[in-house]
Design a protein that fits this description.
Blueprint lengths: L7 E5 L4 H11 L3 E6 L20 H4 L5 E5 L5 H13 L2 E4 L5 H4 L4 H7 L4 E6 L13 H7 L22 H22 L4 E5 H8 L1 H9 L33 E5 L10 E5 L5 H7 L4 H4 L6 H5 L2 H12 L4 H8 L6 E3 L3 H6 L1 H6 L2 E6 L3 E6 L22 H7 L5 H9 L4
Parallel strand pairs: 1-2, 1-4, 2-3, 4-5, 5-6
Antiparallel strand pairs: 7-8, 8-9, 10-11
Bound molecules: oxidized coenzyme A (CAO).
Oxidized coenzyme A binds next to helix 1, strand 2, helix 4 and strand 5.
């Protein structure tokens, strides 16, 4: 028995944000029925293809454990079938451009008429306001949600992160909203509207930067590299690799950095473990020096401190640094490349990195469910081919017989 077994999801999502959400729900056991345009499907099936005529990794890695039905929801017969699917499902998820479902005739009011228990969840770029009609992709959300303004180095341009906080981050937020709405439905008996804007999701993930915006009114941000010699403007500045918390941290070079772009490690010079760190890097002298032996004393010399730490880390591999500093309670972490992560044995063993077999692509590596439930374990299954389950869904879920299905097919509805 899986956590969401018995929950049926009408999945109208495409690209990344929505599919991330429904893939998580599928991993928790929901029956996710992905509705795709006949002959076209989710645009990502064909985007960034590495093998001709085969579903892209972009698609296969975001649509595990789902079933696919092709349905033209703009045709008369397609709308009839879609209406029947709304009757039979618990949750509908979509991330089309604003108004797309309304234009098809499926407004929230209409959906409630068809199925008052329906939970209707959407991702949009923006919430109500001046930009509510805009189409939005990942980096637009990172820029408009505070991520880009606060990422990068002092004096450099705003920078987006490799983590897909706008798309996958908002999909995660939406999945939580759906789970809460399913829980509330148990007592209320009613469905509800669940909405998450990408700008809002990114801002939520940048919460500590809004914290710093308000701290700025009361003096310089002493953990930022701009302190004490640089200047602070009116807004939270870009902090480079400085730690967002109260303990100073920085990325430092390790042995091999001249040729390996990932021969770096993050070191946090946590006050409680400073003695061990100072001794290890050959700076016992700091321990008796009032300029160095208190966190306050060190605050104005963080650049110099990390230069000294780096002189030591450059003599070690990033893994040796981890082995030596961890037992001393010095938090640190090697900068792991995607290649290293894909090959990491412990991630394979935990199911966070999985190898999947696909009928037309063959074997590929994917990220499995990062959320581990003890009573609802995840078995990652390959993504569906376009329309692979059309007949199965029409007969099993809607009770259509072969003649009905053929009739729908002959008018191009499926
Ligand atoms: N049958 C018939 N028509 C269908 C269909 C189906 N099964 N599925 C989709 N369509 C139609 C839609 O109704 C829409 O038609 P209209 O423009 O006539 O209303 C059309 O296909 C395309 O939808 P779209 O406008 O959403 O697609 P796009 O490629 O132009 O925009 C995106 C893509 C992502 C920018 C936009 O969907 C968007 O802003 N979504 C909200 C924010 C979001 O999720 N962004 C994340 C993107 S990456 O995860």
């Amino acid at each position: 028995m899986k956590a969401l077994e018995g929950v049926r999801i009408l999945d109208m999502t495409h690209v990344q944000s929505g599919p991330t959400c429904t893939q998580l729900l599928a991993w928790f056991g929901a029956d996710v029925i992905k509705v795709e345009r006949p002959g076209v499907g989710d645009a990502t099936r064909g985007q960034l293809r590495d093998i001709p005529d085969v579903d892209s990794l972009y698609f296969t890695m975001l649509n595990h454990n789902k079933r696919s039905i092709t349905l033209n929801t703009k045709s008369v017969e397609g709308k009839n079938i879609f209406t029947r699917l709304i009757e039979e499902c618990d949750v509908m998820v979509e991330n089309f451009a604003p108004g797309a479902l309304d234009r098809m005739g499926f407004t929230w009011e209409r959906i409630q008429e068809i199925n008052p228990r329906m939970i209707y969840a959407s991702v949009k770029g923006f919430g109500p306001g001046p930009y509510e009609d805009c189409k939005v992709y990942e980096n637009v959300a990172q820029c408009t949600g505070g991520g880009a303004s606060t990422t990068g180095f002092d004096g450099g341009p705003p920078t987006v992160t490799g983590a897909q906080i706008g798309d996958s981050g908002t999909g995660l937020h939406l999945a939580l909203g759906i789970a809460a709405a399913l829980f509330q439905r148990v007592t209320s008996g009613r469905g509800q509207r669940v909405e998450c804007a990408m700008q809002d999701g990114v801002l939520n993930l940048c919460r500590v930067k809004l914290r710093d915006q308000q701290r700025l009114a009361h003096g310089p941000l002493t953990e930022y590299p701009q302190y004490p010699n640089g200047t602070f403007g009116e807004a939270t500045p870009r902090a480079g690799n400085a730690s967002g918390g109260g303990q100073p941290g920085w990325v430092v070079r390790c042995r091999g950095w001249e040729t390996d772009p990932d021969a770096y490690t993050y070191v946090i010079a946590q006050a409680a473990a400073f003695e061990g760190l100072a001794r290890t890097i050959g700076h016992e002298d700091w321990l008796d020096d009032p300029e160095w032996n208190t966190p306050k004393g060190r605050l104005s010399k963080l650049e110099k401190m990390f230069e000294e730490i780096e002189k030591w880390t450059m003599t070690k591999s990033k893994f040796e640094v981890m082995e030596i500093l961890n037992p001393l309670n010095v938090p640190c972490g090697p900068v792991l490349s995607m290649k290293e992560l894909a090959e990491e044995e412990s991630l394979r063993a935990s199911g966070t990195v999985v190898e999947i077999d696909h009928p037309t692509r063959g074997k590929y590596v994917s990220v499995g469910n990062p959320i581990k439930l003890s009573d609802s374990t995840t078995a990652v299954e390959r993504s569906p081919l376009l329309g692979e389950h059309t007949d199965q869904i029409l007969s099993e879920v809607l009770g259509m017989d072969n003649a009905d299905i053929e009739a729908a097919r002959s008018v191009g509805a499926v």
